[in-house]
Design goal:
Layout (H helix, E strand, L loop, with lengths): L20 E3 L7 E7 L6 H20 L8 E7 L4 H14 L4 E4 L3 H13 L4 E3 L7 E3 L2 E3 L8 H12 L2 E7 L2 H16 L3 E8 L7 H10 L3 E5 L6 H9 L8 E3 L13 H4 L3 E4 L8 H14 L8 H20 L4 H8 L4 E4 L2 E6 L4 E12 L2 E11 L2 H4 L11 E3 L12
Parallel strand pairs: 2-3, 2-4, 4-5, 5-7, 8-9, 8-10, 10-11, 11-12
Antiparallel strand pairs: 1-3, 6-17, 12-15, 13-14, 14-15, 15-16
Helix pairs in contact: 1-10, 2-3, 4-5, 10-11
Pfam families: Peripla_BP_5
InterPro entries: Leu_Ile_Val-bd (IPR000709), Peripla_BP_I (IPR028082), TAT_signal (IPR006311)
Protein name: Transporter substrate-binding protein
Length: 414
């Protein structure tokens, strides 16, 4: 089953290298909001829904009168799943567009390619993606969940449900490598055993040898941190080998690209995941948001996931900070964000933690059945405790680093 692309493409100009899509009427006094996402290439399964909710956020802000009496103008660049384009567009956003804020990046590699550039130009940066934690940067606000909020929940839940022996498969870059370290830590803390860990480049599509290894190792379950369209092949091949019934899967990534719609119900039934958002969250804000989205895009709208919702909520957090600051100037907006600012969004209350510039948030465990996530457990107001182990921007606001770049042990955690 293929995801519909009808509502994912934001215009032919957005897919061109040199011509961004600009939403809204261009005017000299418009507030400039730049988004850089992967709208094509192997990571578009994440970027396309994020682009839709970013557009919706800017439309909502402008429909309410804009900010400070000014329209917000959205420029949306397609990085085409290529790091080179991220660096090019980040420079363009900061130096050429003179953006008031940039919301950008999906992979950790893309974030680290642009974060220093935006800090150097003093352009306020939001990274609205669930990730491995460890960014400590006064200029950078990370709104997505981190392992202490989600991996720490799904690992013990899966171990209680299925058993103590675990096999880990993960993407071969910072996110997968560091998240795998967190997985091993949480498995050990809960009295379990990690039988093996394997890493795969993003373009790998053949998982037959690994599936044979898993069959031989006989773990109680597999936990996956695979990433991107190519890695969806793992779940298809795993199900085709008849493995789902004997050795189930928990994941820290499955679903944030709506992968549950790319495979059949039978191939995905029973997968567990934990995120800061699932569509089934029962609150009035979420219900109203989904109704508005469906009215705008139709019944075949993209399923909302954490990345898409955080893109919306990240834009709204920034907008609330601009209102509180009474200006779009970077320093007053940062101060407003770090004042304990809370936004009540579709996922629930999201609050900026001033020590880390990350969010405290509600966290949920989902059980996939018939291509729909059923929430089986929820946890209120979870702090970014992993990043707080290494980052204190209250005590040292001059920090600007990715402190887990060389792993947890190098950061003094493992």
């Amino acid at each position: 089953m293929k995801l519909s692309r009808r509502h994912f493409v934001v215009g032919s100009s957005a897919l061109a290298l040199t011509a961004p899509a600009t939403i809204g009427r261009a005017q000299s006094d418009a507030i400039k909001f730049v988004s850089i996402l992967d709208l094509s290439g192997g990571l578009d399964i994440y970027g396309a829904p994020m682009a839709e909710t970013t557009k919706l956020a800017i439309e909502d802000i402008n429909a309410a009168g804009g900010l400070l009496g000014r329209e917000v103008e959205l420029t949306l660049y397609d990085a085409q799943s290529t790091i080179q384009f991220y660096t090019q567009y980040a420079t363009q956003a900061a130096a050429g567009d003179k953006a008031d804020t940039v919301h950008a990046g999906i992979t950790s590699a893309s974030r680290e390619a642009i974060r220093p550039t935006l800090a150097r130009f003093k352009t306020l940066y939001f990274y609205n993606v669930q990730y491995e934690g460890g960014v400590c940067d006064y200029n950078n606000f990370c709104t997505g969940s981190t392992p202490a909020q989600t991996v720490a929940k799904v690992v013990p839940y899966a171990m209680e449900k299925w058993g103590k022996k675990v096999y880990i498969v993960a993407a071969d870059y910072n996110y997968g490598q560091i998240t795998a370290q967190w997985m091993q830590r949480f498995v050990a803390e809960n009295g379990g055993e990690t039988l093996d860990v394997e890493f795969f480049p993003l373009d790998v599509t053949n998982f037959g040898p690994t599936i044979n290894k898993i069959q031989t190792a006989k773990p109680d379950f597999v936990i996956s941190a695979l990433v991107g369209g190519a890695h969806v092949s793992f779940y298809r091949q795993y199900a085709a080998a008849g493995m789902m019934q004997d050795i189930p899967i928990a994941s820290t990534t499955f679903g944030v690209g709506n992968e549950q719609k790319l495979i059949s119900a039978e191939e995905g039934n029973g997968i567990l995941a934990s995120y800061g958002y699932f569509e089934g969250i029962d609150n009035p804000v979420n219900k109203a948001f989904l109704e508005r989205l469906e009215a705008k895009l139709g019944a075949d709208r993209p399923v909302m996931n954490e990345l898409a919702i955080r893109s919306y909520e990240g834009a709204m957090l920034w907008a609330e900070a601009v209102k509180a600051a009474g200006t779009v100037d970077r320093e007053p907006v940062i101060e407003a964000l770090r004042s304990g600012l809370t936004y009540e969004g579709p996922s629930g209350a999201v609050t900026i933690d001033p020590h880390t510039n990350h969010c405290s948030m509600n966290v949920y465990i989902g059980d996939l059945q018939d291509q729909t996530w059923n929430i089986v457990e929820s946890f209120a107001d979870q702090p970014p405790a992993d990043t707080a182990l290494v980052c204190d921007l209250v005590a040292n606001p001059d920090q600007s680093a990715f402190l887990f770049e060389n792993g947890l042990e190098a950061a003094g955690i493992k």
